[in-house]
Amino acid sequence: MSGLSALFALTTWQIAADGPLRGLDERAGRALVGHGPRWLTEFFADLGNMQVALPVLACAIGWSLLRGRRWEVLGAALAMAAVPLLVVPLKDWIARPGPLTDATGYYPSGHAATAAVAYGASALLLAGRARPAWMMPVTAVLLTAVTGIGLVLRGYHWPLDVLGSWFLCGLLLLLPYGLVSRSRRRSSSRTPSC
């Protein structure tokens, strides 16, 4: 937790204070924009749209509710609700211009945050339910990663906009992770041993 907090604070400070990482970030971002097939990078970037990511989380929530996992669902829903509550004021405060525009409000990336929490919380809700067990977390990481890659390659965000969102959302996912872990420990302690 402290590592994610420190990385988020460092990234935010560098962007807000126009530190050396910001210059490096902008040079890297300019070098990356336009690479890759447009249709593919746009598809990747679109995975962070609410219209795509939220239905995935809604399905995981519905499935978990049917199995009586109310606390886990509450944690996932609260983490997702926290995304706009934290990201929007940060965007206004930092007022970072985008890679291809002078308009501001690009740090942290809302699309990267939406993808990270929606896919991450879905994986937490469904973890241990799918076989092989690694499938859900790996899928969530891949979906989140390709979303960030698409956002940068399309020129919608600078690389640190995406990384900053991931650091913030790693912190947000601690709530559903804690509730999922607690719930599974409780249910396994009630399982009779042979």
Report on the architecture of this protein.
With 194 residues, this protein is an all-alpha fold. It has one domain. Helix content is 75%, strand content 0%. The protein contains 9 helices and no strands. Helix 3 (38-46) packs across helix 7, helix 5 (70-94) packs antiparallel against helix 9 and helix 6 runs antiparallel to helix 7. The relative contact order is 0.18. The mean pLDDT is 91.
Question: Which blocks of ≥5 consecutive residues have pLDDT under 50?
Answer: none
Q: How many strand segments? A: 0
The helix count comes to: 9
Please, how many domains?
A: 1
| Biggest beta sheet attributes | none
What is the average per-residue confidence, as pLDDT, rounded to a whole number? 91
SSE string, helices as H and strands as E = HHHHHHHHH
Helix content percent band: over 70%
The N- and C-terminal alpha carbons lie at a distance of: 37 Å
What structural class do helix, strand and pairing data support?
A: mainly alpha
Rg over CA atoms: 18 Å
Q: Shape, please?
A: globular
| Strand residue content | under 5%
Task: Note the main attributes of this structure.
194 residues, mainly alpha, 9 helices, globular
Summarize the structure.
The chain has 194 residues and is an all-alpha fold. Helices cover 75% and strands 0% of the residues.
